[in-house]
Specification:
The structure is a single chain. The protein is an alpha+beta fold and 307 residues long. The protein has 2 domains: 233 residues; 67 residues, no CATH class. The chain is built from 12 helices and 4 strands, in the order ααααααααααβββαβα. A 4-stranded antiparallel beta sheet has the order 1-4-2-3. Helix 2 packs parallel to helix 7 and helix 7 runs antiparallel to helix 12. The mean pLDDT is 89.
Length: 307
């Protein structure tokens, strides 16, 4: 059965593996070139102002943008036709009429496809992460909380791609037509990306830092850790209540505003870069659970009606 499924989808599998191999090789070369450029400019013992000119920021942005489409492409061209194609042309009926059970056919189909997806996306994640690693604390290259870095490193690309492919396979199983399944899978993959984009920062635990040295022009602002992402900034009163940073905009003077609201300092909410790994694994675990749920639905549906 394993040989049959691989033989049936060998063109797509080999194409995916070949593209991944070429991309990983290119990323490895880019990392070596980056290390050379940084070393020439004094990295890591000099300040970022000295070695930053040696970083090709646009190259990072373009590559990360391209890698962001990987889950969508895999869902449309691998996941959607995976079951829909066999259901549409009658191959599923032929296979299940033999000694092979529908459950084994589904398990082999999904298992081999998932293995290829995991291997390819994990390789891309590791290669891109190693390339970006030396400059990860420099937000002008790639912000760690943005999808360009967060979604292309660690377990996130694997989890996103796997969930999209399995969900697309479920869509194909329900619609039973390859073309319409690919269209619906594309729309679904885009929706997943949008929802993930707006929920990404909710995966972390917001940290608050405050000052109690006044709010006037000479008052110091809270100093955030390196590469921290500022979420919100507020005025802090003596009672601990916070006010929007524009509270004093319509007051007659800063002194009047300070006395009126008893302002004693600033309060800043932020996410440190140290939470990036935990946020990625938390988000990936949610996607893995959703993937398992969709897989279970596929098997339940397959046992009841597969052809």
């Amino acid at each position: 059965m394993n040989w049959l499924i691989w033989r049936q989808h060998r063109a797509g599998f080999w194409t995916l593996l070949a593209i991944t191999t070429l991309t990983v090789t290119w990323l490895v070369y880019q990392r070596a070139d980056l290390i050379h450029q940084l070393t020439v400019h004094g990295w890591p013992h000099s300040s970022s102002e000295k070695w930053l000119p040696g970083v090709h920021v646009q190259r990072f942005q373009l590559v990360s943008y391209g890698l962001g489409f990987v889950p969508v492409v895999l869902g449309v061209f691998l996941g959607a036709p995976l079951l829909a194609g066999d259901l549409e042309n009658g191959t599923a009926k032929l296979v299940t009429s033999q000694t092979v059970t529908p459950g084994r056919w589904l398990a082999t189909k999904l298992g081999i496809s998932a293995l290829v997806v995991i291997v390819c996306t994990a390789a891309l994640s590791i290669a891109f992460g190693r390339w970006w690693g030396p400059v990860k604390n420099e937000p002008t290259v790639l912000g760690w909380s943005d999808g360009s870095a967060f979604d292309n490193t660690g377990p996130v690309p694997v989890a996103l791609a796997l969930f999209t492919v399995v969900s697309a396979a479920a869509i194909g199983m329900l619609l039973r037509r390859t073309l319409i399944s690919m269209v619906v899978a594309f729309a679904f993959a885009v929706i997943v990306q949008i929802v993930w984009h707006y929920q990404r920062l909710n995966l972390g635990h917001v940290v608050t830092i405050t000052t109690h040295e006044g709010v006037g022009p000479g008052a110091p602002r809270p100093q955030l850790p390196e590469a921290a992402l500022e979420i919100d900034q507020s005025l802090l009163s003596g009672s601990g209540q916070t006010y929007g940073w524009g509270t004093c905009a319509h007051e007659t003077s800063q002194k009047v505003c300070t006395q009126k609201y008893d302002l004693v300092g600033w309060s800043v909410d932020y996410l440190p870069i140290s939470q990036m790994t935990s946020m990625q694994w938390f988000g990936a675990s949610i996607l893995f659970v959703l993937t398992a749920a969709v897989t279970l639905l596929i098997f339940i549906r397959g046992r009841k009606r597969i052809v």
